Amino acid sequence: MEPYSRHVLVCTGGFCSPDRGGRALYALLPTLLEREGLLFGPHRVKRGETPCLGVCSGGPIVVVYPEGVWYGAVTPELLGRIVVEHLRDGRVIDEAVIHRL
């Protein structure tokens, strides 16, 4: 496996986000990562989807590791900010964080 800098999990289940907005976010993520040069190479961001993160409200939820930062109520616009500000530039978007490990 190629090395990667971060791992992003997107909840695509229906409990925390009844409209299944997580699925749309997961589909958008590779485009955003590619635009910022994070889809391939040594600084790439690995992505994964999960049917449940156990929160069951406030979704869609996106989690960034290794920092252990959980973002809630993620919209396509917020996902764009997460990719640029957090994944590319290393700045957590504090006002969108719902939990930190």
Can you characterise this structure?
The chain has one domain (6-100): 3-Layer(aba) Sandwich (Glutaredoxin), CATH 3.40.30.10. The protein contains 2 helices and 5 strands, in the order E-H-E-E-E-H-E. It has helices at 21-35, 76-88; strands at residues 6-11, 45-50, 62-65, 69-71, 97-100. Strands 2-1-3-4-5 form a 5-stranded mixed β-sheet, with helices on one face. A hairpin with a 3-residue loop joins strand 3 and strand 4. Helix 1 (21-35) crosses helix 2. The longest helix is centred in the first third of the chain and has 15 residues, at 21-35.
Offer a concise description of the structure.
The protein is α+β, with helices and mostly antiparallel strands. It contains 2 helices and 5 strands.
Estimate percent helicity: 25-40%
Mean pLDDT: 93
Estimated share of beta-strand residues: 15-25%
Give the biggest sheet. Answer: 5 strands, mixed
- What overall form do the CA principal axes indicate? globular
Here the CATH topology equals Glutaredoxin
Uncertain stretches of 5 or more adjacent residues:
none
- Structural class based on helices, strands and sheet pairing: alpha+beta
* Number of DSSP helical runs: 2
Q: Give the C-level CATH assignment.
A: Alpha Beta
Order of helices and strands: EHEEEHE
Rg for CA atoms: 12 Å
Strands of the biggest beta sheet: in what spatial order? 2-1-3-4-5
The number of distinct β-strands equals: 5
Cα end-to-end separation: 26 Å
Number of individual domains:
1
Q: So, CATH architecture?
A: 3-Layer(aba) Sandwich
| CATH superfamily caption | Glutaredoxin
